[in-house]
Amino acid sequence: MINLRACKSCNTVTDQPKCPRCGGEVSREWQGYLVVIDPEKSEIARKMGIRAAGRYALRVK
Fold first, then answer.
1. Are 17 and 28 in contact (CB under 8 A)?
2. How far is the C-alpha of 38 from the C-alpha of 60, rounded, in Å?
3. Element (H, E) at 45
């Protein structure tokens, strides 16, 4: 089973020990899962400040 982590800075979900998108610290404590395919058309992506397609956590501790 893969242990997914979420970046504390940009909320990107990853299985890496550091965030591949921004290089930030990751946490195993996160909630919610969002997949953004087209950030320009997504209202949720706009409200969260997401500008790139990918997997994101809704809340990271």
1. no
2. 22
3. helix 43-48
Structural domains counted in the chain: 1
Lookup: tokens for 60: 């990271």
Predicted confidence (pLDDT) per residue in 19-50, tens digit: 999 999 999 999 999 999 999 999 999 999 99
Expressed as residue numbers, the domain containing 56 is: 5-60
Residues constituting the chain: 61
What's this model's pTM, rounded to 2 decimal places? 0.90
Provide the token pair at 21.
């998108």
Q: Pairing between strand 5-7 and 26-27?
A: antiparallel
